[in-house]
Write a structure and sequence with these properties.
- It is built from 15 helices and ten strands.
- With about 375 residues, the protein is an alpha/beta fold.
- It has one domain: Aldolase class I (TIM Barrel).
- The protein has an eight-stranded parallel sheet with strand order 3-10-9-8-7-6-5-4.
- The longest helix has about 30 residues.
- The chain is globular.
Length: about 375
């Protein structure tokens, strides 16, 4: 086993162990992938101010996200097909998150169901991410299932009314069910650890959908249903309806524009996530870290602002916090850990990010994450309005 010291080590190992079609699904963006790359690259231009002769004892990264205690300002982002990176992937990631003390967010398009995750984490509160489908009865039932599972926040994704084109998925034949081409079968045959894990679980289809929608009994008829269900007519009136139906903490995901941020405030949501869907939707859009300070300046006093996109280290978390994000989300970083080493890999990912966050915060002269602000950043190196 190689020595794992950073997220890139986990990515390299995951690429070796996960079948190409599923690894590429997680590690790709739309069209030219310029926004996907900018999400992480733009963090590098932001420079930190090192301070010395400061008492660095008694440090704490603990804070809150939507009023809920977290061990650090990080949550696991909702990612579709997580259970295809590693058998029972959503359950394993939820367990690791619970142990560490941060939120896990389950995607509507997960392999393990809401009930699977609730049962295997002893009903420990987790968050649920909702896509709006044309079948409103299904959405209402999904919200009710999230309530029954004691989910403590609902994350409503607003930027996937239609799908961006991702070249790698088309070339790999990623679909529901996946196309078992000769090339794919040969590739899977080289991933025996993954294959044995998948052979040992019954969770191989979209657990939140199959068996919960009339006529959708397997991956075959699921494809026809999902192709017609993402709702291009989604609007702010739907947000109001969902908020009323849910009745709990509501987080709106996919905000990149100040005008949309103002609408998010008007909706009465508890938080918004500055996000471009990991560069998987509108290629050429601004990176999340560059959009963040503009949105914080416009609405930060009226709604809690979070962000995701491009976070690969604890320093990235620290920079986002300095620019006004109360919380951040990791998607690809935890998927690398999951694909590389299962639950142990997700725990390793969280440990790496926490250690980098803790040490970098101290080097910048702070011992409490809640005191971090723009003062830790070198002037002229970070985006401003």
């Amino acid at each position: 086993m190689p020595v794992i010291t950073n997220i890139e080590d986990l990515r390299i190992l995951a690429k070796k162990r996960v079948p190409r079609m599923f690894y590429d699904y997680a590690d790709s963006g739309s069209w030219t992938e310029s926004t996907y790359r900018a999400n992480s690259d733009d963090f590098q231009s932001i420079k930190l101010r090192q301070r010395v002769a400061v008492n660095m004892e008694n440090r704490s990264t603990a804070t809150t996200m939507v009023g809920q205690n977290v061990a650090m300002p990080v949550a696991i982002a909702p990612t579709g097909l997580t259970g295809m990176q590693h058998a029972d992937g959503e359950i394993l990631a939820a367990r690791a998150s619970k142990k560490f003390g941060i939120p896990f967010t389950l995607s509507t398009m997960s392999i393990c169901s809401i009930e699977d995750v609730a049962k295997d984490t002893d009903n420990h509160p987790f968050w649920f991410q909702l896509y709006v489908m044309k079948d409103r009865a299904f959405i209402e039932a999904l919200i009710d299932r999230a309530k029954a599972a004691h989910c403590s926040a609902l994350v409503l994704t607003l930027d996937l009314q239609i799908l961006g084109q991702r070249h790698k998925d088309l070339k790999n034949g990623l679909s529901a069910p996946p196309k078992l081409t000769i090339a794919n079968m040969i590739n899977i045959a080289t991933k025996m650890r993954w294959a044995l894990g998948m052979a040992g679980t019954s969770r191989r289809q979209f657990g939140n959908i199959v068996g919960h929608v009339k006529g959708v009994t397997d991956m075959g008829n699921l494809a026809a249903w999902t192709a017609q269900q993402f709702d291009p007519a989604l609007n702010w009136g739907d947000v109001e309806w969902i908020k009323k139906r849910w009745g709990g903490k509501l987080i709106l995901k996919g905000i990149q524009d100040v005008e949309d941020a103002q609408l998010a405030v008007n909706s009465g949501a508890d938080a918004l996530i500055v996000s471009n869907h990991g560069g998987r939707q509108l290629d050429g859009a601004e990176s999340s870290i560059r959009a963040l300070p503009h949105i914080v300046d416009a609405v930060g006093g009226k709604i809690e602002v979070h962000m995701d996109g491009g976070i690969r280290s604890g320093q990235d978390v620290l920079k986002a916090r300095a620019l006004g994000a109360q919380g951040t989300y990791i998607g690809r970083a935890f998927l690398y850990g999951l694909g590389a080493m299962g639950e142990e890999g997700v725990s390793k990912c969280l440990e790496i990010i926490h250690r980098e966050l803790d040490l970098s915060m101290a080097f910048c002269g702070h011992t409490k994450i809640d005191t971090v602000d723009k003062g830790i950043l070198l002037p002229g190196t970070f985006p401003t309005c």
